[in-house]
Design a protein that fits this description.
5 helices, six-stranded antiparallel β-barrel, 28% strand, six-stranded antiparallel beta barrel, alpha+beta, 3 domains, Thrombin, subunit H, 293 residues, 12 strands
Length: 293
């Protein structure tokens, strides 16, 4: 984790120096300072053989947090600029795609309206609304992203001092982003839904076919353990089922882009509705007693 933090900070600092025209002599001093911090952490470990790694991690977090905030301030505008698309043809294709998706959403809404056959519709809708009020939610800013073949992570500027606890979930506009895997005094590490270690009980389709949503260290994810007897079609929305102790019910995970019979299970591929690596802010919430079927 320290290597990812130092690499990201150095990348942001390098870009800033290039754009501002500051001499490489100043940058070399900055690198010496950063490597001094790494050496200092190992010296502390050597002098305190009985101290836990968690104590060393917390001590290092006090120093690394300001560097991460500076890196976020420097690299965020450049990140947005690098991902901006000026191609008119590509924008037109995007407009056409959004129009098609709008038509699909309208059709889906009609289907869901027709599916509300049970008598306590008003009560069910009230309970559903309560799940999305997020009265105790914490708003956090993404200050760093790590996307490698082994892990998909983001870091937010809310930690133990702000009330964050391990197991809280990250939400963006009712889309599930991931879960808090580790908490430090001033920031937290969030395991994204695209990470292979993040597994969420979910369902999809009008018949609510059940499965386990898992990341693949790629842009797309999968819905595993869906019985071949269930009916799943391309375009079905994948929603968290609320089973388990971490993830609430009713948060979007993505839409089915591929489904084929693979023995006793379906092979289901899912595309997240939003790219978890592109969000700049998210809500951190804790599952409540209402967040289940």
């Amino acid at each position: 984790m320290y290597a990812a933090i130092i690499a990201n900070c150095l990348t942001g600092a390098t870009l800033k120096l290039i754009f501002k025209g500051i001499s490489m002599r100043f940058f070399s001093r900055l690198m010496v300072f950063v490597f001094f911090l790494i050496a200092f952490s190992f010296v502390v470990r050597a002098l305190l053989p009985y101290a836990s790694w968690k104590m060393v991690d917390n001590a290092f977090s006090y120093v690394s947090f300001p560097l991460m905030k500076v890196q976020a301030f420097i690299s965020e505008p450049l990140y947005k600029l690098a991902h901006r698309k000026w191609d008119i043809e590509a924008l037109q294709k995007k407009v056409d795609q959004l129009y098609q998706e709008k038509e699909q959403v309208i059709a889906r809404n009609i289907e869901l309206e027709a599916a509300l056959r049970f008598g306590n519709q008003a009560g069910a809708l009230c309970e559903f609304k309560k799940r999305y009020q997020h009265a105790n939610a914490l708003l956090g800013q993404v200050i760093m992203r790590t996307c490698t073949e082994s892990e998909h992570l983001i870091f937010v500027d809310r930690g133990a001092h702000h009330g964050v606890t391990a197991g809280m979930v990250a939400v963006y506009e009712n889309n599930l982003i991931g879960r808090v895997s580790e908490v430090f005094p001033f920031y937290s590490k969030i395991l994204l839904i695209t990470d292979a270690r993040c597994k969420v009980a979910a369902w999809c389709g009008a018949q609510q076919a059940r499965g386990i949503h898992e990341g693949q260290q790629q842009v797309h994810t999968v819905l595993n353990h869906v019985s071949h007897l269930e009916h799943v079609t391309v375009g079905d929305m994948v929603i968290s089922s609320g089973e388990g102790t971490i993830f609430p019910y009713g948060l979007a995970l993505g839409v089915v882009t591929f489904c084929a019979n693979d023995g006793i299970y379906h092979a289901v591929r899912v595309k997240p509705l939003i790219d978890p690596m592109s969000v700049t802010y998210c809500l951190l919430v804790q599952k409540t007693a209402h967040d289940h079927l």
